[in-house]
Amino acid sequence: MTKSQIADITWKDSGVPVAARFDDPYFSLEDGLAETRHVFLVGNHLPARFVPGFHVAELGFGTGLNMLATFLAWRAEGAPANVRYTSFEAFPMTAQDIAKALDTFPEAKTVSAPFLSAWAEGARRFDLDGFSVAVVEGDARQTLTNWQGRADAWFLDGFSPAKNPELWGEELMKQVGAHTAPGGTFATYTAAGFVRRALYAAGFDVERTPGFGRKRHMSRGTLRD
User: Fold this and answer.
1) Do 38 and 51 contact (CB within 8 A), yes or no?
2) Complete DSSP assignment for 105-121
3) In whole angstroms, what is the distance from residue 97 CA to residue 108 CA?
4) Which of 74, 84, 175, 182 has the smallest CB count inside 10 Å?
5) CB-CB contact of 153 with 48 (8 Å)
6) Are 203 and 213 contacting, i.e. CB atoms less than 8 angstroms apart?
7) pLDDT tens per residue across all 225 residues of the chain
């Protein structure tokens, strides 16, 4: 796997992009932005926890929708200084495909121009009005191990564990735990038993909570002391 592998996308009539490699949509067929807010923001008790220097990390950047939803929440919270967002992505989408996907979400699309411009130029580090974003390309099983940061909140948003088990394995979840600040949290749309067990083994207290839309359950947790 190399950094240059671009996501192979097919499209549903509704405008939802599907990763051909994993045969899985990038976001909910019902409302991807609402799903992001329910799972990743509420699941991590955001935006209330935003303070200067807060760090969000993510497995699976995809269309950047989670990032843009976080940016909107950060801005609505008063834009605390030095908030950072780091995402790990093995198969980056093209700027053209991202722009097409974001057409489905006018609220996110209205603030996406600086991101899309930077992305089209090949930038994987950029600043949105003081909200710092870094996207680390490559296999997270290697790149996260080498990362020097620690996140206050994790968005675990790889493709379905049944179709992309590599991004949910025990060793990678152990690295998530090792790269979490004291009192840090995670949230994910999946409630798969092996994922919850791996996160518990990685040091998190894990709870299953109501999922979004037709998904009965999701998972969230807090790093144990």
Assistant:
1) no
2) -HHHHTT-HHHHHHHHT
3) 15
4) 182
5) no
6) no
7) 334 588 899 998 887 899 888 888 888 867 899 999 999 999 999 999 999 999 999 999 999 999 999 999 999 999 999 999 999 999 999 999 999 999 999 999 999 999 999 999 999 999 999 999 999 999 999 999 999 999 999 999 988 999 989 899 999 999 999 999 999 999 999 999 999 999 999 999 999 999 998 889 999 999 998
